[in-house]
């Protein structure tokens, strides 16, 4: 809603430190990880870790998931001033989420999806967006789009796969933007060139980049950092993460190591070493030594 290229929501990945890194490279907006609406109305304390921080608040949407329209609305109301806008997760294909009628299960029950959007829109004054897939089992995007627009949502983002596909096959960008509300395309966009292509094919005004940014945040600036620059980015990311989660950074950072070391010499051996490290300073030293060995 604010710009063309945003960071897609990814549970366990798009925390404050990673969002910060992506913003420094030019991501124009981002989302929190998905947050359960039920847990919001129960005031579950851990959620506070997920909420946008003051310095990013105007460009980070809070994504919620759930299936009860009134619970979703109440949660949205409680969160509306904590982020830039509220996003509804109607795309998550994970069994645990679908079983509760949430995430992509809403694509099988468009009446409920509509009700959720309507109830939220009734009581919040911020914008409301919806992130969907093409459909649950088959491509029913036209119907989904119409439902989302009729319900009064302010923006729609679509991951060009069905829920059944999970992450298999190639995402399509051939999704028609009827143009009633801002439309963002997502899925397999792994460069700014892809972003341009995806926008041309779909007629979308912008894109969301997910996995392509993991361990590769310079994707947002079309960058190609030198080894020294890469090391610097990694150490910065680690420091941010440490500030955010303390020593848990050592384990959490493992998700980013493959991305950051992709294509580098002896990266497989290096990653195996990283997985054994438990101390934060040791981890930083290991990165320094590895990059020094690459320079030599
Ligand atoms: C680890 C991981 C976690 C994800 N978590 C969420 C989430 O919390 N909410 C959501 O709407 N989508 C989530 N997604 C889906 C992404 O936002 C995106 O739609 C999908 O990865 C396709 O885009 P990409 O090819 O650019 O990664 C997640 C994806 C991954 C890989």
Describe this structure in words.
The protein is α/β, with parallel strands linked by helices. The protein has 2 domains: 5-220, Alpha-Beta Barrel (TIM Barrel), CATH 3.20.20; 225-295, Orthogonal Bundle (Non-ribosomal Peptide Synthetase Peptidyl Carrier Protein, Chain A). 41% of the residues lie in helices and 12% in strands. The chain has helices at 16-24, 37-41, 69-79, 95-98, 110-123, 141-151, 192-202, 227-245, 249-252, 254-261, 267-276, 280-295, and strands at residues 5-7, 30-31, 35-36, 60-65, 86-90, 128-133, 155-159, 183-186, 206-209. Strand 3, helix 2 and strand 4 (60-65) form a beta-alpha-beta unit. Helix 1 (16-24) packs antiparallel against helix 8, helix 3 runs parallel beside helix 5 and helix 8 (227-245) packs antiparallel against helix 12. The termini are far apart. The site of flavin mononucleotide has 22 residues, from loops. Belongs to the dus family. FMN binds at residues 9-11, 63, 131, 159, 210-211. It is an enzyme of class 1 (oxidoreductase). The active site is at residue 92.
């Amino acid at each position: 809603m604010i710009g063309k290229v945003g960071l897609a929501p990814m549970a366990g990945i798009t925390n404050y430190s990673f969002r910060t890194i992506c913003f420094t490279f030019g991501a124009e907006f981002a989302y929190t990880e998905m947050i359960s609406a039920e847990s919001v109305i129960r005031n579950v304390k851990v959620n506070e870790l997920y909420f946008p921080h003051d310095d990013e608040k105007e460009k980070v949407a809070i994504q919620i998931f759930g299936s009860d329209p009134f619970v979703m609305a109440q949660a949205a109301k409680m969160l509306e001033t904590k982020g830039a806008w509220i996003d509804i997760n109607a795309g998550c294909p994970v069994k645990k989420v679908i079983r509760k009628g949430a995430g992509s299960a809403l694509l099988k029950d468009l009446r409920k999806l509509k009700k959720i959007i309507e109830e939220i829109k009734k009581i919040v004054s911020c914008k409301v967006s919806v992130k969907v897939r093409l459909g649950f089992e088959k491509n029913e995007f036209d119907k989904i789009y119409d439902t989302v627009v009729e319900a009064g949502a302010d923006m729609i983002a679509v991951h060009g796969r069905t829920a059944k596909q999970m992450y298999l096959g190639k995402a399509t960008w051939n999704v028609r933007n009827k143009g009633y509300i801002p439309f963002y395309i997502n899925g397999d966009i792994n460069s700014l060139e892809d972003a341009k292509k995806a926008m041309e094919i779909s007629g979308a005004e912008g894109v969301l980049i997910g996995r392509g940014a993991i361990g590769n945040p310079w994707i947002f600036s079309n960058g190609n950092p030198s080894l020294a620059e890469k090391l610097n980015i990694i150490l910065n990311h680690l420091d941010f993460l440490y500030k955010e989660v303390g020593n848990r950074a050592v384990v959490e950072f493992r998700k980013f190591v493959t991305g950051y070391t992709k294509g580098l010499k002896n990266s497989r051996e290096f990653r195996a070493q990283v997985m054994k490290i438990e101390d934060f300073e040791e981890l930083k030293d290991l990165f320094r030594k590895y990059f020094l060995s690459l320079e030599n």
